[in-house]
Each structure stands twice: as C-alpha cells, then as structure tokens.
Write a structure and sequence with these properties.
Number of domains of chain A: 1
Order of helices and strands of chain A: EEHEEEEE
Shape of chain B: globular
Radius of gyration of chain A: 14 Å
Oligomer: heterodimer
Mean pLDDT of chain B: 93
Strand content of chain B: 15-25%
Distance between the termini of chain A: 40 Å
Chain lengths: 113, 562
C-alpha cells in the first residue's frame, strides 16, 4: 500500500510550504512510522518530535493530522493522501515541531524563541 | 548562552527527577536538563508494571531476601554494595512515592504485591497493569513543580562533560529548538540518561536511549563496568503493528494464561529447548534466556514467523477468560485490529535493559571527581542479569543518593568552570556545516542491525570481531565534524551526535563481549557455552584514544566495604 504524506515544512519567519512524500506501508503502521520512513528514504532533514515511538507514553508526537489534533503514533497510515501540519495553537519551531513544553520547562521561559 | 548552577542533572527520567529533588532538598541549586521534554522521554514513562521492594505488606519480607534474589539473578557479578543499597533503601522510596500519591494498587487495606519471576515471594508493587511508568513520571513531575531551586530545561541535548584539572566542571549542550550552543557551569554533574537499548534493531526503548550517558562518561575519562551484559526480553511484540502499548506487554498475560509459542510451521517448540538442568520460571517451560535462545534458533533454522520471530497464541483460552485477564487491554488490541480469539501475534527477542554502565561507588561518584551517575546509567547493582522489578527501584534509590552526594559536593566546593576547557566541544559544534552526508538516519538503522546480528543475545568470536571492524569503519565514515541544516531543531545534527555516542557505546559493548570467553547471564557465547568459575570477574573499561582499554577485577562484596 502507498501513502502520500503532504507535510508542511519550514521555520517561522520564512515562507512555509508543503512537500509531498510517497511511502510504502503495511496495515497497522502509524503516521509516526511513515514520518520515520520519510527520513530514511527521502529527506533526513524533516523535523518532528517523538520519544517513545510506540507506547503513546511520552505524548510528544502531537500534530495536526488531516485537520485534527492527534498523536502521530496512534493514527494509522492510510492509502492516499494524509495532510500533516504542526499544532496550530503552539509556537512553530520547524516543520512539524512546535513549542509544547510548559513555559517554565523551557530555556527561554517567556517566549518561544 | 551560559548558565551556572550547583548541580547539573542530565536526564529527566525516574533517576534524574529523584536526583534533582534530593539535591534541591539538600539546599543546592539544580538544573535538570533533558534532550526531550521533562519526564516524558527515557524508560521510566514506558515502564509497564512491576516495582520490587521488600515492603512486607503482602507477605512478611526482609530486604535481605530481596538482596539474595538480586544477587542470584546477577550470577556472581553484582557489586554487592550497590545491590544491598537498592534492596535496603527501596522500601523507603516506595513509601515516599506512596505519600506523594503515586497510587500503588491496594487490596484489603495494604499495598498489593505480586510474585514476579525470580523473586522468592510476592514483592512487586504496581499502579495498574500497564501504566506504572506514566504514574511514576507524573508523580515525580508534580514534586518537581512543588520544589524550589530546580530549573527544568527540556530540548537540551548534552554533548560533552567539561573537565578541568581532571574534575567535572559542567557541560556543553545544544538547545534543540533554537540550535543555540549552551555552556553549563556546574560544581557537580549527575548522569541519569538511562540505557542503550536503541543500539538494537528491536528494542523496547524510546528514541533517546542510545547510551548517551555511557559515551559522555567514557569521553570524560570515567570507567564503565559490565558493558557486555545487555538484557533481552524474549517475547517483545513484533507484528502486526501495535501502537499505544509497550512492546513487552505480552509477558504478564503469557504468564497468567499460558500463551503458547509456535514456530512458522505452527508447531510448539519450547520443549525442544528445555534441558534437564534449566531453571523453570513458574508456568513457563523456558526461562527468559532459554526462550530467547529457542526463538532465535528457530528463526535461524528457517522456521521463524513471517516477520522473523515466533507466533504467540492465546487461541486455546476461552474468550471470557481473555476478557477477564486482559481487561481494557483487549480494547486497545481491538483498536489495533488484533483479535486474540482468532489470530496469532508475532513476537521476538528485543533489547530491554542494560546491566552495565558507569562504575560508581556508594556515593554514586564515578571515577572522575564531581561526576556522579544513577539509575540504569550505572553498572554493578544487577551484575550479569537484572531481577524483574529492580529497574524503577534503582532509579529511585540511586537517583536520591546521587542527588544528596552531588549536592554535598557542590555546596562544599567552588565552581571550577573555565571557558577554555569547553572550547574543544564548542568548536566542534560551531564547525557544523551544511554539506552532503550519507543519510545518517539510515546509518543508525544499519548500526542497529549490526548490533542485533553480531552483538545480540548469542555471540561468537567471529561475529564480535566482524562487528568491531564495522563499528570502526562507521566511526571513521562519520568523521569529526557534524553536518547541519543550519536551522533550528536540526535532525541532521541530532543524528550525527547520536551516532557519535552510539558507535562509541557499541564498541564499549562488543569489546568486553569479545574478551569474555564464557556464557553468563545475559552474555551468551555460542563458542563458549557454560559459566566458567574463573570468569567471576567484572570487566572495567575506559577510553584510550579511539580504543577501549579493558581491565578485570573481582566483584566487590558488602563486607569488604562495610
């Protein structure tokens, strides 16, 4: 099966753009699996956040998946197009990475950057 | 950017959070840094269930019985001073966590304790079947919020410990979300970065468990101990793809319901590998190490399951009993499209825990003044094999101790920081350039495959030598200067820094594994089967240029240092 990931790329301050990546996948694989596959097969500069990979324990891989806030590790890949964007209400860091830490757990506590 | 503190704690899992709390309690200013978010990355948050401590709530117990089980599991290699501390001080930490409302499961007015394999009695507490780790993390995060004197900084990847006159005086870091280089002056540094299971293709690790702390300690000149002992868990989940669950989740269910292991020919094979002298773990035919061996051998013989493991079947268990035993897990499985009444799952051995680590004394002090370590990052307490339930307990006990001693050292000493001492690492990071490199995320995968195939649970002289040659080749290919996208949250830089550590740690595992010509605990040599009395020795390693220097010493007993 093939999935086409439409991914918003870029940093704040520069024009954002969407890049499409096509990947092969097996039933049951997650969007996070797909993103990791993109880094391996196409573009290692793609930035996204995750720690625990499988367990849905770290809660770091939250993003906007087809317009809905969700975890990349629990949403399954599907055939056809999936649109991935960073969380809309958090400060953008780069690509799919946003500033999600509580303010007092940041190096720069008062603003995102 | 430059920051100053009394105590720098690297890693915000169970051990690091406990260290920060205790250091602050002792009056020190603390920076708690993690490359991920505070209390989210690492192994603690993923812990599934059991935490061992001789509370005697369920059945009379003494820490000395727990110690006897820990030492038996460690097959003669434990640093008994550390094992004894773990078992002696564990109950107080479990009760402290209880007072902090972690929510240990209770029954009839007492904390419930269950009997886990390798223990002589019911000793392991838990919160609920699958979420002990998240509860522990949440509880410690709450305490961090309440404490004063602790600055928490996420997205901060420590690159090197800084040494001046042979003493740790701080660290150099990269702030991931801005790309800024950060220098940290600290009177004491505590490494609490967890283990190295990400070195293997199949693992129960999180992304940041690539052995960072071992590499930091090696480059700082510290000694590591028992690095050849990597614990593999025999029936990690392999297929179909299962998300939202810890991959080691099958164990309690297999234990409770007698799940059957089948090979690719749908035949039960455990009896083929059972030997008369093999210890039997309760309702299992095979102990963990024998089960790992049996599955690996079936796969090697071409009788593996399609994904390269074995089938695990619960089809003989009535649906109502499955529902009762698995509880809400059945629904999580259904969400993954898995129905145990009509289908098999595939399982395979996965890297789960590292027994080896930084060599410390009873103060959690490494062989470098000012450099402390705790949790899975240290070696010695678990010898050649870890008893189930000891990992979270050691995170608490050793974390707390490291926090106390690091704070005492910091409060008695002036800062040793010098910018010149940090210059080499800062220079390396500044030199990071935009250039074409091979895809380093692929190189990480290659290294994981190499480690699984050549430095996995079953080793030979030939495979280990091949691994060492390949590790050296990959290291020279990696080079001395990191690549960079020049942007924030730079995955190229992260991959390079990870590989720098992972390759060093891979060599630190393979080298003592090659030297140990016997089989003991988690280190199994196919060309040297059986335990050799003469090898009741710890191997201690240091970095010697690009090479690993090895020495041996007899395990430390409690008495020698009482």
């Amino acid at each position: 099966m093939k999935a086409k990931l439409q991914i918003q790329r870029g940093e704040p301050g520069a024009p954002l753009h969407v890049e499409a990546f096509e990947i092969d996948f097996e039933a049951g694989q997650s969007v996070l699996d797909g993103l990791r596959a993109v880094r391996q097969s196409a573009d290692p500069t793609l930035a996204f956040r995750y720690a625990c990979i499988n367990a849905n324990a770290c809660k770091e891989c939250m993003m906007l998946i087809d317009g809905k806030v969700d975890y990349a590790c629990t949403v399954k890949l599907k055939e056809g197009e999936t649109v991935l964007k960073p969380l809309p209400k958090k400060a953008l860091v780069r690509d799919l990475v946003t500033e999600i830490a509580p303010p007092d757990e940041r190096l720069f506590p008062t603003n995102a950057k | 950017m430059h920051l100053e503190t009394d105590v720098l704690v690297i890693g915000a899992g169970g051990a690091g959070m406990y260290a920060a709390l205790e250091a602050a309690r002792a009056g020190a200013q603390v920076i708690l840094a993690d490359r991920s978010l505070i209390g989210r990355g690492g192994a603690t948050v993923m812990a599934q269930m059991t935490v061992a401590a001789a509370l005697g709530e369920q059945t009379p117990d003494s820490w000395e019985f727990h110690l006897a089980d820990t030492l038996a599991a460690g097959r003669g290699l434990c640093d008994e001073r550390l094992s004894a501390m773990l078992c002696r001080e564990g109950p107080a930490r479990i009760r402290e966590m209880d007072a902090w409302k972690v929510g240990w499961a209770r029954h009839d007015g007492h904390i419930t304790q269950i009997h886990a394999p390798g223990h002589d009695r019911a000793r392991c507490v838990y919160v609920d079947v699958l979420s002990t780790g998240p509860a522990v993390s949440r509880t410690l995060r709450t305490q961090l919020n309440l404490a004063s004197g602790i600055r928490r900084i996420g997205d901060l990847a420590i690159v090197d410990i800084v040494l001046r006159d042979g003493q740790a005086c701080g660290a150099v870091a990269v702030h991931l979300s801005t790309g800024q280089i950060v220098t940290l002056a600290a009177k004491s540094v505590v490494i609490a970065t967890g283990g190295l299971t990400r070195l293997y293709r199949r693992n129960s690790a999180s992304f940041n468990m690539g052995g960072d702390g071992y590499a930091l300690a090696l480059r700082a000149g510290a000694q590591l101990i028992d690095m050849e002992f990597v614990q593999f868990f025999p029936i990690g989940h392999l297929a179909p793809r299962l998300v939202g669950m810890d991959p080691i989740m099958w164990d309690p269910f297999r234990y409770k319901l007698g799940g059957k292991l089948l090979n690719g020919e749908m035949r039960e094979f455990e009896d083929d590998y059972a030997s008369a002298d093999a210890r039997n773990d309760g309702t299992y035919v095979l102990t963990r190490d024998r089960a790992t061996y049996a599955i690996s051998k079936e796969v090697e013989a071409g009788r593996g399951s399609p994904a390269g493991g074995a089938y695990l079947s619960f089809q003989h268990v009535p649906e109502s009993e499955l529902r009762r035993s698995f509880g809400p897990v059945i629904d999580k499985l259904a969400a993954n499209g898995i129905d145990l009444t009509r289908q098999l799952v595939e399982v395979a051995p996965i890297a789960h825990y590292h027994m080896g680590g930084i060599r410390v004394d009873e103060d959690m002090l490494s062989t470098i003044p000012g450099l402390y370590a705790c949790g899975e990052a240290i070696g010695g307490a678990n010898g050649a094999n870890r008893l189930s339930g000891n990992a979270i307990t050691e995170a608490f006990v050793f974390g707390a101790r490291a926090g106390q001693t690091a704070a005492a050292h910091a409060l008695a000493n002036a800062s040793h920081w010098s910018d010149e001492a940090a210059a080499t690492t800062v220079g390396m990071l500044r030199a990071a350039d935009k250039r074409d490199t091979p895809n380093l995320s692929v190189a990480v995968t290659d290294l994981q495959a190499l480690m699984a195939d050549k430095v996995g649970p079953f080793r030979t002289d030939e495979k280990l030598r091949e691994a060492l040659v390949e590790i050296d080749r990959m290291s020279s290919e990696l080079g001395a200067t990191p690549p960079s996208t020049g942007e924030s949250f730079d995955p190229l830089l992260i991959d390079w820094l990870d590989l720098r550590n992972m390759l060093q740690v891979a060599k630190a595992v393979a080298t003592p594994a090659l030297a140990r010509t016997e089989s003991r605990g988690a280190h199994q040599r196919e060309d040297h089967p059986g335990l050799e009395e003469a090898w009741t020795l710890n191997q201690i390693i240091t970095l010697d240029g690009a090479d690993i220097a090895l020495e041996r010493s007899a395990p430390l007993s409690q008495k020698a240092h009482a």
